[in-house]
Design a protein that fits this description.
Radius of gyration: 26 Å
Number of domains: 3
Shape: elongated
Largest sheet: 6 strands, antiparallel
Strand content: 25-35%
Helix content: 40-55%
Oligomer: single chain
Number of strands: 20
Number of helices: 11
Distance between the termini: 24 Å
């Protein structure tokens, strides 16, 4: 219960900052074009308290999930539509800028947060950790069918020369049912091949069946499961299983999965000391056909380089990272529309609350990274051409500018109703996804 309350509080902080920054963009743009702003509310619903400065009521409202700006003449039925300071009395290009200003401020927030963070603490994995060397190829996987082998180094991925492993996994996730053209180095020779990822039912993204080569560290040891009972702990580095060297998370999972229920001998390193322990797998059904399982979460161990960047360098790196994040968000949206990625990737308020709480518990850096990413998400999603959202308003204004006349009130109302229904359905589906992730399968 305490975790739920904590997650909810951090969600309110996260959403409150992002949405009020968004509304501040609309507010500033409206004021710049001399639109009368009647209210700037922190939260929705009944007004709790506030103050009036000039003609604007700055208020705190009952439901602290974001906020809104109320402009004169915002509704066509308002008595203020003939007021020269109402928003509908302004030229269409000014209304377009007012609509665009909200998402723009979310981009500014995303860039600003990362810039400030990088000036205090900039972390990156070493070049060796990002080297795209394959450490494991799952049997019967797309990678295996493409003839890829452990130890292959990917030197070209489609048009990308010398990709990092980050580039590889992004292309894999976005590439379900799409042929990826690869060139790998193997034994001093270059080999060309074509790989077509499938769509993973579990993760909802593309699956190739490969893993990066490197040291494997336990980032999770589930309480009460065999690994925990045998004494394995978070942070342990796995060296071998049944004398087979472990260079990838997939290899560790494959060996335990194929154990047939027999004990596995795991050699691991902790605090520079080598240890060995016997672990008895249990059969765990989970949300699939079932497998032998020891209850660990393995991930590559990265050698993290930590430094501080100057303001110009931090700003450039922030622009670069936000550019990559924006491309990834757009590709995910395209992937869902084109059915190359599953709608399981949609996350609602419950999922965001969990992420907010986890990031806050991890530390300020993780929380601000999450804020930057979700603020950028909010900007891009708001610019989608869906009526009721900023992108839909912008699209209608562009149509009117092209036609050189207003769309009829009936058409606008119908479009907004359709947009509202679409948004509510998306929110309901995202909440369903959140609940599905929380509830145990079967």
């Amino acid at each position: 219960m305490l975790v739920f309350i904590e997650n909810t509080l951090w969600l309110l902080v996260l959403i409150g900052v992002m949405i009020n920054i968004h509304e501040l963009g609309h507010f500033w743009a409206a004021r710049y074009f001399d639109v009368r702003v009647e209210a700037f509310s922190f939260g929705f619903g009944t007004r709790l308290f506030g103050f009036k400065r000039g003609e604007t009521d700055y208020r705190f409202s009952l439901i602290p999930l974001g906020g809104y700006v109320k402009m004169a003449g915002e509704q066509a039925a308002d008595d203020t539509v003939n007021d020269p300071r109402s928003v509908l009395a302004k030229p269409r290009w000014q209304r377009l800028i007012i609509s665009f200003a909200g998402p723009f401020m979310n981009v500014v927030l995303a860039v600003g947060v990362l810039t400030g963070l990088y000036m205090i603490k900039y972390q990156r994995a070493s070049d060796a950790d990002l080297d795209p060397v394959i450490g494991h190829v799952a049997a019967d996987s797309p990678a295996a069918k493409a003839g890829l082998q452990e130890g292959d180094r990917i030197v070209k991925l489609d048009s990308k020369v010398n990709p990092t492993w980050d580039d590889v996994i992004v292309q894999e996730a976005e590439g379900a049912y799409r042929a990826l053209h690869l060139t790998v180095e193997r034994g001093g020779k270059r080999v060309d091949t074509v790989l077509t990822p499938t769509l993973s039912e579990k993760s909802g993204v593309g699956y190739a069946g490969w893993d990066a080569r490197g040291e494997i560290q336990l980032v999770e040891v589930e309480s009460g499961f065999p690994a925990d009972k045998a004494g394995l702990k978070k942070g342990d580095v796995i060296r071998s299983v049944n004398a087979t060297p472990i260079h990838s998370a997939g290899k560790l999972q494959e060996l335990t999965k194929n154990s047939g229920g027999k004990p596995v001998a795991i050699q691991y390193e902790r605090d520079g000391q080598q240890h060995e322990v016997s672990v008895q797998p249990v059969f765990y059904k989970g949300d699939g056909p079932g497998r032998w399982f020891i209850g660990v979460g393995p991930q590559p161990k990265f050698n993290i380089i930590t430094t501080r960047l100057s303001l110009p360098d931090a700003f450039r790196e922030s622009l670069s990272q936000n550019g990559k994040n924006a491309m990834m968000i757009v590709e995910v949206l395209k992937g869902v529309i084109e059915r190359r990625m599953s709608t399981k990737n949609l996350t609602g308020p419950i999922g965001i609350a969990q992420m907010s709480g986890e990031a806050a518990r991890e530390g300020p850096s993780a929380f601000f990274l999450l804020m930057s990413m979700i603020s950028l998400n909010l900007a891009i999603v708001n610019l989608l051409p869906i009526p009721i959202m900023d992108g839909g308003v912008i699209l209608m204004l562009l149509v009117e500018m092209t036609m050189q006349r207003d769309l009829s009130l009936n058409v606008k109302e119908a479009m907004f109703k359709v947009g509202f229904v679409c948004i509510m359905l998306l929110v309901a589906f995202a909440i369903y996804n959140d609940i599905s992730r929380i509830l145990p399968a079967g």
